[in-house]
Amino acid sequence: MKRYTWIVLIVVVGLLAGCGVRKGERRTQSGDQARTVLARQLPVTIQMDSLSYTVYCTAQAVRDSIVVLSLQPMAGLEVVRVEVTKNAVLGVDRTHKRYCIVPMTQPKKGGKWHSLPLRDGAELYRQLQRAVFSESGGAVSTEYDGHDLLIQVGSGKRVYDQPFTVRSLKLEEYEEVTAHSLLGM
């Protein structure tokens, strides 16, 4: 009887190994089906006119809701945050306590935003969502204030469908500035 127990045990272990099940490993959905994504050390290249620079940031996104790009050069100390929703782009300079809001569409007359809207903000939002959720990244392009803006989201390891929270900011503690001031233009 012991001989058969060992044979059954070896067959079961062999089947589990063959199926790719390993201790501590959890299969996740692909980026096309996932509800959330988290990527660390994600290369993002931003080009506007003759300016071009690459930063490595943390990206967090909830499908059809928000994309958050966070620059954290020193162990969790956030320096810059960009939050993109269907309605607006919020850029925050945490070091100098400044922020700006760029609407995706032209605000109604008397709107509070004094930044110009992005050209085709809805398409920018769709492209950014697609690039952040895709393992291979992608290019996002639009126009802002007459300048061509290209954002290249690089490839890198992404973790899908794990819960996370985006730390909220108390914007009343920050000074609202124009996008030009925030970007140093």
Descriptive overview:
The chain is α+β, with helices and mostly antiparallel strands and 185 residues long. It has a single domain (28-183), classed as outer membrane lipoprotein receptor (LolB), chain A. 19% of the residues lie in helices and 36% in strands. The chain is built from 3 helices and 10 strands; from the N terminus they run H-E-E-E-E-E-E-H-E-E-E-E-H. Strands 1, 2, 3, 4, 5, 6, 7, 8, 9 and 10 form a 10-stranded mixed sheet that branches. A hairpin with a 2-residue loop joins strand 1 (36-48) and strand 2 (51-62). The N and C termini lie far apart (81 Å).
Task: Describe the secondary-structure layout.
Blueprint: H1 2-18, E1 36-48, E2 51-62, E3 66-71, E4 80-84, E5 88-93, E6 98-103, H2 121-133, E7 138-144, E8 147-153, E9 158-160, E10 175-176, H3 179-183
Parallel strand pairs: 6-10
Antiparallel strand pairs: 1-2, 1-8, 1-9, 2-3, 3-4, 4-5, 5-6, 7-8
